[in-house]
Amino acid sequence: MGSSSNYSEFTSPIRNGGAASFDVHIYFDRHNDHEVKAMKAMRQAIKDEFPELSIYPIHDKPVGPHPLPMFEVDLFTPAQFGAFIPWLAINHGPLSVLIHPNTGKSRLDHTQNAIWIGNRLDLKLDTFDKEEEMDEVARRLEDVLGKNTS
């Protein structure tokens, strides 16, 4: 009996190859000196411990659906996910972390497909196209139930 293919590639519909499979958003309150210091230390620790990961510039203001300033780390492989997320769970300190897959369905990825470490934050969900996402949920449900007629 062989091992699961999920050790080498992410399950569909999560992106595999090329684009990031998972985004990790690490939030901080820019008016809280303790959180700013923790964020800077976390960012450097990630660079030191995981130099192969893509670490993006700091957003010093909320952007898109994100309610606080943050920086992003992208994960491309199950091995990166398996190494980084447990490390982050232990080392996130006072910072909130959103981890979400990239399936092409942003609203679902940031909500029902998301994982939180630390305190969960309320995202600005009105930035997503609600109608498109609801259509996709209906299509998935129909596929699962075997009733897709399209």
Taken in chain order, the helices and strands follow as: EHEEHEHEH
DSSP strand count: 5
Distance from N terminus to C terminus (CA atoms, Å) equals 37 Å
- What is the number of helices? 4
Task: Outline the low-pLDDT stretches.
Answer: none
Largest sheet: 5 strands, antiparallel
Strand order of the largest sheet: 2-3-1-4-5
Q: Tell me, what's the shape?
A: globular
Describe it for me?
The chain is of the alpha+beta class. It is 35% helix and 15% strand. The protein is built from 4 helices and 5 strands. The protein has helices spanning 33-49, 78-91, 106-110, 130-145, and strands at 22-27, 54-55, 70-75, 97-101, 115-117. It has a 5-stranded antiparallel sheet, covered by helices on one side. The longest helix has 17 residues, at 33-49. The protein is globular. The model has no long low-confidence stretch (mean pLDDT 89).
